[in-house]
Design goal:
seven-stranded mixed β-sheet; alpha/beta; globular; 281 residues; DNA polymerase, domain 1
């Protein structure tokens, strides 16, 4: 089984990178991607947990924003982690998360919702990339909602009055940075309408021109019709299709390997990196 989209405590997951690899082993996953938000901090620890039965794909999920304000997530896989340009892009994106979080907290407070920035920091593991899931966890801890999923459904989705965008690279810029670093770019859950605004189908041509390699088709936040539409777009544009869990650990329903990538599709995707970077033991 091949799962190309997971998160650890180094961004907004609840498992350490070591624990995540061990859980993937127990679940029968043979190829696992670590794709923390705007961070490669979990790579080294994940490698220490490797066993011969599993191979590791190192990557990151880059937060992007289109020119018309639509939030897009771009999975960068198999890029050179020492590449200065992509590390600067990731660092810049992380830096914009603090003022964005402060603004969201202030909007919630203005409506009488019990939350503070300190509450969010308390819910965030040391070294993590600050994100909405930590705000969700703080809301759970304060008894405002019962779960992360409820927080996103009612308060923190992209269409919510409490949602605030942050400075981020465009999807085209992110793709170019990933490809320049030798990796491959897969757009994550682009038609996940339950999260808020989604890309228009016509947007994909520009992404392909920038070097897009694939589309994450099979994802729990995209219904059957949305997945069928994405599959058709991938066929038309000759893009790889992937399926992934977007696993975050406890507090979020996504289970490891609940969606997986076909091996043929994965082999094609891997071949499009500028060199083999899959980590094995």
């Amino acid at each position: 089984m091949i799962d190309l989209h997971t998160h650890t405590r180094c961004s907004d997951g609840t498992d350490t990178p070591f624990a995540l690899v061990k859980k993937a082993l127990a679940a029968g996953i043979t190829t696992l991607a670590i794709t923390d938000h705007d961070s490669t901090a979990g790579w080294s620890e994940a490698i220490t947990a490797l066993q011969p039965q599993i191979e590791l794909v190192l990557g990151a999920e880059i937060s992007c924003l289109t020119h018309d304000g639509i939030s897009v997530h771009m999975l960068g896989l198999l890029f050179d982690g020492e590449d200065r340009a992509i590390q600067q892009l990731l660092s810049d994106s992380r830096d914009t998360r603090i003022p964005r979080m402060r603004a969201m907290v202030e909007l919630l407070q203005a409506d009488g919702i019990q939350i503070s920035l300190d509450d969010v920091y308390k819910a965030m593991p040391d070294g993590a990339t600050l994100g909405r899931p930590h705000l969700a966890d703080a809301l759970v801890a304060n008894g405002v909602v019962a779960s992360r999923d409820e927080a996103f459904l009612d308060l923190l989705n992209n269409g919510s009055k409490y949602y605030v965008t942050h400075a981020a690279p465009t999807p085209v810029d992110a793709i170019k940075a990933i490809r320049s670093a030798g990796g491959v770019a897969v757009i994550a859950h682009p038609f996940a309408s339950r999260r808020g605004q989604v890309l228009d189908a016509t947007s994909f041509a520009d992404l392909v021109s920038a070097g897009l390699n694939g589309i994450e088709v099979h994802h729990r936040d995209q219904n059957a019709e949305e997945q069928a539409s994405l599959s058709a777009i991938a066929r038309e544009l000759n893009l790889v299709t992937t399926g992934s869990s977007d696993y975050h650990g406890t507090g979020k329903l996504n289970g490891l390997a609940e969606n997986v990538t076909d091996k043929t599709q994965w082999l094609r995707l891997e071949s499009e990196a500028n060199q083999r970077r899959v980590v094995t033991k």
